[in-house]
Amino acid sequence: MTDSQDSPAIVPMAERFRGYLPVVVDVETGGFDWTTNALLEIAAVPLELDDAGRLVPGEVAHAHIAPAAGTTIDPKSLEVTGIKIGHPLRGELPEREGLDIIFAAVRAAVKKHACQRAILVGHNAHFDLNFLNAAVARVQHKRNPFHPFSVFDTVTLAGLAYGQTVLARAAMAAGIGWDPNEAHSAVYDTEQTAKLFCTIANGWRHVAAA
Predict the structure, then answer these.
(1) Would you call 53 helix, strand, or coil by DSSP?
(2) What is the pLDDT of residues 70-120, one digit of tens each?
(3) Bridging pattern class, strands 39-49 and 55-57
(4) Are residues 192 and 173 in contact, defined by beta-carbon separation less than 8 angstroms?
(5) 93, 64 in Cβ contact below 8 A?
(6) Which of 20, 49, 91, 170 could cysteine-pair with 164, CB 3.0–4.6 Å?
């Protein structure tokens, strides 16, 4: 029997999730209320397939966002994230420009994999989606590539796979590791969440194929 007969055929991304491309997203914000608090940072990692057909994190897209007019910031949230609003090294962008950077990268990945649209993957995913949708509404963005309400939540998946719902503990249980000094950076949290989702999804694919 040849290797090609031994190995299952690689399923294209467009056929894996009903035509949706999983894109891992994390936001840092000025509080917990997406209707009033500012979006301050966003990162997105579209998922890719390796040569064996396993899900792997793609290239991260990232933007620091200047607080939009009319939004508020709870100082306690800045104590957690360490974000310094207006610091010259942050390279803050207006909300519309930040979304354009993220959405352009996501649309390119959706097109690459012949998917219909993106679906947000996150840890407590509706928190991220609600802040994203609120920003989209504020700037009246017409090219949001994400599904408006469906998500994949790694809280649920990690709870099922490892009995853990906290991202740091789930990452440790999955063998990914966790650096508390890097936590609450949108880029780091997105990359770790992407690794967590891929680890769980790839393991499930192996079980399903057995």
Answers:
(1) coil
(2) 999 999 999 999 999 999 999 999 999 999 999 999 999 999 999 999 999
(3) antiparallel
(4) no
(5) yes
(6) 170
Q: What torsion do the CA atoms of 176, 181, 184, 186 make, to the nearest 10 degrees?
A: -70
Structure tokens belonging to residue 127: 């928190």
Among residues 62, 123, 184, 206, the one annotated as catalytic is: 184
- Please indicate, yes or no, whether the overall pTM of this predicted structure exceeds 0.90: yes
| Pairwise CA distance, residues 50 & 58, whole Å | 10
For this structure, is 184 an active site residue?
yes
Q: Distance between CA 139 and CA 133 in Å, rounded? A: 10
- Contact between 134 and 72 under an 8 Å Cβ cutoff? The reply is no
97 alpha carbon, distance to own chain's centre: 18
Q: Which two tokens stand for residue 4?
A: 């090609």
Q: Phi-psi region for residue 14, left (φ > 0), alpha (ψ -120 to 50) or beta?
A: alpha
> Do strands 61-64 and 117-122 pair parallel, antiparallel, or not at all (unpaired)?
unpaired
What is the percentage of the chain residues whose pLDDT exceeds 70? 93
